[in-house]
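In keeping with the milestone schedule agreed at the kick-off meeting, the structural modelling team has produced records for the first pair of proteins. Each record is given below as a sequence line and a structure-token line. The laboratory manager (R.T.) confirmed that both were archived under the project's standard naming scheme.
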Amino acid sequence: MFDRVAGGYDLINSVMTAGLHHRWRERAADLARVGPGSRVLDVATGTGDLALELARRVGPGGEVVGSDFSEAMLARARAKAPPPARDGGEAVVIPRFEWGDALELPFADGAFDAATVGFGARNFADLSRGLGEMTRVVRPGGRVVVLEFTTPTRPPLSLFFRLWFDRLVPLLGRLVGDSDAYTYLPNSVKRFPAPPALARELERAGLREIRYLLTAGGIVAIHLGTVPPEEG
């Protein structure tokens, strides 16, 4: 499904969120607290927008890996990456986009300073396992950040949300020739844990100092947690 929608994914995202998804990713990158020299993993990177935002923060000397199981999405991400600097300088970090299974990440324990996932955690076939893998590959003291849609509960925004996600988003899908994919989106948001429940999932994954913030009137939640020091 994600291979099928890759070509129009960025356009639909911008239409669906009025372009605000870029600002939400900036905020998620802020909360990852990475800087020059940091090594960061972006899981379920899709077309790479969050990985590219992180890359702006880790130069010189840093590294960003964007991992996804959709080759078509990865192809779009690679096409969006900036070209290498002609002078060989290291100020601009170019993310490395590679195939990977979020439930079995091919990286060593503690390999990264932070791990992020933007609008992809609800697609994990096993949420607990996916969050556990993200926690495993982050060093003690590093952060895990989850950016995701959530369902607002208070009117009038809750009424607008239902109209937009249940009616208009599938219509957008039909316009781009894949109504099944854009019917999946609102259904996946409804199935995903509410912010307090997701915070508990992060705690079960082994994270500490967990908190979350709601933005866009409660349509988007950003969770973060810190990998605790090793015992002993």
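The second protein of the pair:
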Amino acid sequence: MASQAATIRFATEADVPTVLRFVRELGEYEKALDQVVATETMLHEHMFGPLVPGRARVECLIAEIDGEPRGFALFFHNFSTWLARSGIYLEDLYVTPAARGTGLGIKLLRQLAAIAVQRGCGRMEWAVLNWNEPAIKLYNSIGATPLSEWTYYRLKAEALANLAAQAGAPESTPRNQMR
């Protein structure tokens, strides 16, 4: 499979089933398929539904070889208070097994970096599983720096609900929701 015919484009609404297939394949690769609860409807809502104040829009790049989708990069904007600039958080980067080694992963990262620069972002960030040596090798080769001094935390399911139940009502309406 030659990488000369590779193209990167933004996902369209018609790509939602393909994105979900890639998400499931990634879940299987990461040995966590049982944790994938996403549906086409859910992905469509976050990628193409109406903007909701306070919620980031999810964007997606599709990598194709000879017109066939072979990978994706799903991302959204975050914000750095230290830089006072937006950044891009790469949630998922995936290339199908048959297309690995063709350069699609690096092409997706290059395109995402170009988007970040064009949009004035101060940085691009992502996480990688410690055992994913091929991905770590790729990230190191492009000059990405592992942040070993940071530990990521996650609240989910019952712990998230329990903490939320302890919150009172906000004291005022957020500025981005005022009219």
